Amino acid sequence: MRVRIDNEKCQGHGRCYELASALFSEDDEGYGTVLGDGTVSDEQVTNARLAEVNCPESAVVIETAS
Question: How far apart, in whole angstroms, are the C-alpha atoms of residue 18 and residue 7?
């Protein structure tokens, strides 16, 4: 499982990095950024899903391997 942020949708509310600080951070303008390559550890799955459902613009995207 990986996370990413759709930069065209992100408006910088910061919910992603407030809810999942091990997965997301903010840039100099307050927009969300993915830490590392976006891989979600087993321990961070719940936080990744919280970030996804709490993003007002649906900019946080969870990708699963198929």
Answer: 18
Alpha-carbon gap, residue 40 to 21, rounded angstroms:
12
Terminal Cα-to-Cα distance of the chain (whole angstroms): 10
Does the pTM surpass 0.85? The reply is yes
3-state SS class at 41 = coil
Residues 10-36, mean pLDDT to the nearest whole number = 96
Per the rule left: phi > 0, alpha: psi between -120 and 50, beta: everything else, 3 is beta
Length of the chain: 66
Task: Categorize the per-residue pLDDT at 66 as very low, low, confident or very high, splitting at 50, 70 and 90.
Answer: low
